[in-house]
Specification:
Two copies of one chain form a homodimer. With 132 residues, chain A is mostly helical. The first copy, chain A, is built from five helices and two strands. At the A-B interface, helix 3 and helix 5 of A face helix 3 and helix 5 of B. The structure holds a DNA duplex (30 and 30 nucleotides).
Chain lengths: 132, 132
DNA sequence: AGTGGTATTGACGCAAACGTAAAGGAACGT
DNA sequence: ACGTTCCTTTACGTTTGCGTCAATACCACT
């Protein structure tokens, strides 16, 4: 299985984060590894959550916002009582993400235009250099 | 024209930021409004830059990174000596942005799956309620 | 018993990105 | 002249997200 337990060091190497970071996330209740005596052991679930945390950070979410998002993925076991609310929140998040993607596409288009404009200027300069 | 000059308050209202934020960005040389006596007056150019700043923040860029991106858009006047370096930086940013968009699309797909899964659970519950 | 490697819990430090007074100038109406 | 409103600079405070010791503990060798 992929249910391999990993030490903190293995996690650091695998995800390119420091041990301090992992303990910090744990303190903020973003992940909750098993304790074998003193040592922490990270499960597949922890790895999944960490992956989402790092993703969230890349998109400018605060750790607190990420914690809320993580809760979305951690149901399937608990009662469905609160699920309707969660569902609505998730819908909003989805809309937000899609808006972000659209905006990101716009930014990419703009940047590409700028670069093409720059390329033309560069080629003009090169022509000058050659003809001089 | 849209070359209307705006006061700091008008900017705050238009972009939903505080005056402190605008002054802070100015101190960091992200924007550079005109000075009429004591007061700041923001041009169309300033508004364009602010828009990009806020966009950048939404995607998790630091202000320092945003400053570099802004420099891309503000050439066309200065020397092209440094442009090659800037061009390379821009290429990297572009690749980064496209990777982000792809990742964002993955996240959106995942979330949609989760939601559909949730919808099925909800409809099952509703059936129970009806048959009870 | 000593040495080395890895983990753990504090605790303090720090940069980024502003918030929040404090104190004062400039323009305006009355 | 006075109060009000809007802006200014200066400067200290705060939160987030970790970095960086310091002291301690566990385990494996030798």
């Amino acid at each position: 299985m992929t249910d391999q337990l990993m030490t903190i060091r293995e996690m650091c190497d695998a995800f390119d984060v420091t041990a301090r970071t992992l303990r910090f996330y744990e303190q903020k209740e973003l992940i909750s590894p098993i304790r074998e005596g003193q040592k922490r052991l990270y499960t597949r679930k922890d790895r999944g959550r960490l992956k989402l945390i790092l993703r969230g950070k890349r998109f400018g979410f605060s750790l607190e916002e990420i914690r809320q998002l993580l809760d979305l993925y951690s149901l399937g076991d608990g009662q469905t009582t609160q699920y309707l609310r969660t569902y609505e929140i998730a819908q909003k998040h989805l809309a937000d993400l899609e808006a972000r993607r659209d905006e990101l596409n716009d930014v990419i288009s703009d940047l590409k235009e700028q670069l093409q404009w720059g390329e033309q200027r560069l080629s003009q300069i090169n022509e000058k250099d050659v003809s001089a």
